[in-house]
Amino acid sequence: MAELSIIGMNHKTAPVALREQWALNRDHALALLHQIHAENTLEEALVLSTCNRAEVYFVSRKADEALDYLAGHVARLRQAAPVTDRSVFYRHDGPDAVRHLYRVAASLDSLIVGEHQILGQVKEAYRLALEARTAGFLLNRLLHGAFRVGKRVMTETEIGRGSAGVAQAAIELARHIFTSLEGRSVLLVGAGQNAECAAQALLRAGATRLIVANRTLSRAQQLAHDILQPTREACAPEGPGCEPPDEADGPVACPAVQRRGDAGEEIEEDAAPPVSAPSAAPTAEGIGLEDLPRAIASVDLVISSTGAPEPVLKYDALAPALARRARPLLMIDIAVPRDIDERLATLAEVFLYNIDDLDRLVAHNLERRRGEIPRAEKIVQAEVEEFGQWLASRQVAPTLRLLQKYMETLQQEQIRRYGGQFTDADRRKLEEFTRALGQKMLHRPMTLLRDVAKDGPLSENVALVDMIHRLFDLDSIKDEGGDS
Predict the structure, then answer these.
(1) Is 332 helix (H, G, I), strand (E, B) or coil?
(2) Minimal CA–CA distance to 201: which of 176, 159, 237?
(3) Per residue in 454-470, pLDDT tens?
């Protein structure tokens, strides 16, 4: 499996500032995949880009050259300088690449272990690769294995119980700082899935006034309308990062959090404004981004999660309104690239956190799930071994042996069936005839296998071998030969 590789960076190896330079939205990912397909530099490729990782899975016999190739293309797509610090990247080959993908799909490599969102993101990455025609036979097989692993881990273990995605972690952070979200006013910037799930979790936590801001006003207004519908289907635990807090386990014991931009100054619990009794019915409205200065002056909390390539909450536009505030404003930026201008943290009443600040918050969740991780890792290991066995069986040498054994078995069966109808001399001729016929029948597929193994792409090689296995039912035959 040495030709199957992954190159990437994630929240463990690179800070958010560097991950931003490799953050690829859907259009970026498609453009990169189309470029790979046009240049035929990599046989197969898949791009997985989330707020916590940017990875390219690929099939190539030239994996050593892939990082420079990908870094150049990403820099051009993002119109940014290439990431020159190679230490923030990791590369896995062969079985290690398979194990890494399976652990990603099982959420074992996530910032919040046990979150459900990543499996949907892997599926979306696969759909894009299919659209760009860069997912060939090998990645198709590998990705369906990853989907199976993710499902098994979530259904056969309790690693996802009480799981919190990024949006939920942001709300848990807000609950820690404010003690309670009862009666709070919240501004959600962005109207995507994270915003919808955050809105529902905020309503469950007691927030009474929600403002949804989006570049497209109609989308913001639609989301504001939808989240208040009593028949609206809530983000279930299976949804992407929308799990309600597990009250049975008590409140999350959050570690102390520091104010962004200040040296060690903590946000005092009594700095929050008095909490009024929640109204009978919460309200929600949708606004355009041009109304952000007006809206931000009256809210307690801002959660931003757009897919914009540059900050949407800009210092010059918002500083005048925020400078007049007499009470604290908590701003949580869960977007990559970041949505909120870092200079806003220098204002007296602004407390700004980004996605990297959630790391300490999730330590509690990691500890609670630690007991389930070994069970999940066993599932991953078993599936990695199964994939390795399958791929090993799709190599040319064992397939040639199985083809010969298949034909020998077929020949012997026919001789046993019809040999009694011939004299000894004629039986020997029958054996010679069936042997020669079998060799003649196998000559073309065996020659084709050898030629593809010698000069053809790996994906084509594995696909051809797999077809021959299915055509002759070779998986039902035990290979007793050695390596060759």
Answers:
(1) strand
(2) 237
(3) 666 677 778 777 888 88
Buried/exposed code over 31-56 (b: 16+ C-beta within 10 A; e: otherwise): bbbebbbeeebbbbbbbbbbbbbbbb
Model's pTM, two decimal places?
0.62
List active site positions: 51
For 7, the enclosing helix (H) or strand (E) is strand 4-10
CB 215 within 8 A of CB 339: no
Query: What is the Cα–Cα distance from 28 to 34, expressed in whole angstroms?
Result: 10
pLDDT digits (tens, 9 = 90+) for 366-384: 677 778 999 999 999 999 9
HSE (side-chain half, CA atoms, 13 Å) at 25: 10
Neighbours of 279 (CB within 10 A): 10
Residue 363 vs residues 25, 80, 112, 444: alpha-carbon distances, Å: 28, 33, 8, 60
CA dihedral 48, 49, 55, 58 (to 10 degrees): 30
Cα–Cα distance for residue pair 387/4, rounded to 1 Å = 12
Confirm whether 483 is domain-assigned.
no
Q: How do residues 16-46 score in pLDDT, each as one tens digit?
A: 889 989 999 999 999 999 999 999 889 999 9
Percent helix, percent strand, percent coil in the chain, to nearest 5: 55, 10, 35
> Taken in order 33, 38, 39, 40, is the CA torsion positive or negative?
positive
Least Cα distance to 113 among 125, 105, 101 occurs for 105
Enter the tokens of residue 297. Answer: 């002056």
In the beta sheet, which residues pair with residue 304? 189, 333
Distance between CA atoms of residues 307 and 336, nearest Å: 7
Planar angle of CA 37, 10, 145, nearest 5 degrees:
60
In a domain, 283, yes or no: yes
Main-chain phi, psi angles of 171, to 5 degrees: -70, -35
Domain assignment of residue 481, yes or no = no
Q: Position of tokens 């008095």?
A: 274
Tell me: do 77 and 151 sit in the same domain: yes
Which residues have C-beta within 8 Å of that of residue 193, sequence separation ≥ 6? 240
Q: Are 156 and 198 part of one and the same domain? A: no
Tokens of 330: 């908590």
Residues 246 and 224 in one domain: yes
- The enclosing domain of 95 has a CATH number of 3.30.460.30
Could you tell me the two tokens for 364?
Answer: 């509690």
The Cα 20–Cα 4 span in angstroms is: 26
- Structural contact between residues 271 and 349, judged by C-beta atoms closer than 8 angstroms: no
265 in the same domain as 282: yes
In this predicted structure, what is the pLDDT of residue 455?
A: 65
In a domain, 220, yes or no: yes
